[in-house]
């Protein structure tokens, strides 16, 4: 069984090394800019058809996690509060009937958010986003070519689960742990599966319930920044995680969220944060396969940098 706790010194990058990395893995001007699809261009019609051939059991696994805060809050509370969604309800009435109506406020991003898709315009590095677009003004909302609505046509492709704790011989990574490139390659070899262009790669750290239990000041596990070149070489379309790619504390000098910047602003790859991947892990182990069809259908919210989603893995 692999050693769950490596004695290798932690991987670190100085800021100038990180800046060089962002240029090395950039996919700027690689695809047509119309539609703002970015790496979704790697999902071809043939790729979707092949993903459908992975459906042999008729089993559907939801990877959606509800908001992780304490309770429903009041409308108008500040974002990223312990109440990540606020609901106001009232009855509309006519003769013979009553209907419950709703107004819902959701913190899409942040510590307590539900499972959500990051649009490419969620992060900008030194005032530049994917394809070198300048950081926009927000008086009229995020321009739609940068927003999450660019994925509203739906994302359907082959999904691959990379189950790091399973490879390490434990249920979950612990606060502050970092998954190395050795862990990633070892997990894939153990599972007998390899990424292909256009895949949706799901990294399980086993931390779906860690954030609300430990609080925002506690270190969090994530993926080592040493994996950046490897991830770029896989040519994936989307990356999904349960606890976020970025470990805390950061491995990069002066940058707290290096993975978000690399994946969104340099590679043009969308992120799905806060997914519930423990159930998916169990089904993969039961069936003895870690590839499946995955469907993500973002709702069409104009100008939003992210939207809640329910990723579905279909076997």
**How many extended strands?**
13
Largest sheet entry: 9 strands, mixed
Helix content: 10-25%
SSE order: HHEEEEEHEHEHEHEHEHEEE
CATH class: Alpha Beta
Q: Treating each run of at least 4 consecutive H or I residues as one helix, how many helices?
A: 8
The CATH architecture: 3-Layer(bba) Sandwich
Spatial sequence of strands, sheet with the most strands: 1-13-11-5-7-9-10-4-12
Beta percentage is: 15-25%
Mean pLDDT: 90
The radius of gyration is: 20 Å
Number of separate structural domains: 1
CATH topology: Glucose Oxidase, domain 1
Q: What class, by secondary structure content? A: alpha/beta
Give the overall silhouette.
Answer: globular
What does this structure look like?
There is one protein chain. This protein has 315 residues and is an alpha/beta fold. It has one domain (15-67, 107-314): Putative cyclase (Glucose Oxidase, domain 1), CATH 3.50.30.50. The protein has 8 helices and 13 strands. Strands 1-13-11-5-7-9-10-4-12 form a 9-stranded mixed sheet, sandwiched between helices. Helix 1 packs parallel to helix 7. The chain starts with 14 loop residues before the first helix and ends with a strand.
């Amino acid at each position: 069984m692999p050693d769950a706790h490596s004695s290798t010194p932690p991987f670190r990058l100085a800021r100038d090394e990180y800046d060089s990395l962002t240029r090395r893995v950039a996919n700027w001007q690689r695809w047509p800019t119309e539609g703002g699809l970015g790496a979704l261009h790697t999902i071809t019609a043939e790729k979707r058809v092949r993903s459908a051939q992975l459906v042999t059991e008729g089993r559907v696994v939801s990877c959606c996690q509800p908001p992780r805060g304490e309770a429903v809050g009041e409308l108008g509370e500040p974002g990223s509060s312990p109440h990540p969604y606020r609901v106001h309800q009232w009855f509309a009435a006519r003769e013979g009937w009553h209907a419950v109506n709703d107004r819902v406020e959701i913190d899409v991003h942040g510590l307590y958010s539900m499972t959500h898709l990051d649009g490419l315009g969620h992060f900008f590095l030194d005032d530049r986003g994917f394809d070198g677009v300048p950081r926009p003004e927000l008086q009229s909302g995020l321009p739609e070519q940068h927003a999450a609505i660019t994925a509203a046509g739906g994302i359907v492709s082959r999904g691959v689960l990379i189950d790091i704790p399973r490879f390490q011989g434990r249920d979950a990574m612990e606060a502050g742990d970092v998954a190395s490139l050795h862990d990633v390659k070892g997990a894939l070899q153990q599972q007998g599966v390899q990424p292909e262009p256009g895949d949706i790669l799901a990294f399980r750290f086993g931390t779906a319930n860690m954030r609300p239990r430990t609080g925002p000041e506690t270190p969090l596990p994530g993926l080592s920044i040493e994996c950046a070149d490897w991830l770029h070489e896989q040519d994936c379309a989307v990356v999904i995680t349960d606890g976020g790619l970025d470990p805390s504390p950061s491995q990069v000098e002066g940058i707290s969220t290096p993975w978000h910047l690399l994946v969104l602003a340099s590679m043009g790859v969308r992120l799905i944060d806060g997914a519930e991947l423990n159930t998916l892990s169990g089904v993969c182990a039961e069936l003895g396969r870690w590839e499946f069809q995955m469907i993500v259908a973002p709702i069409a919210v104009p100008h939003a940098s992210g939207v809640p989603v329910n990723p579905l893995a279909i076997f």
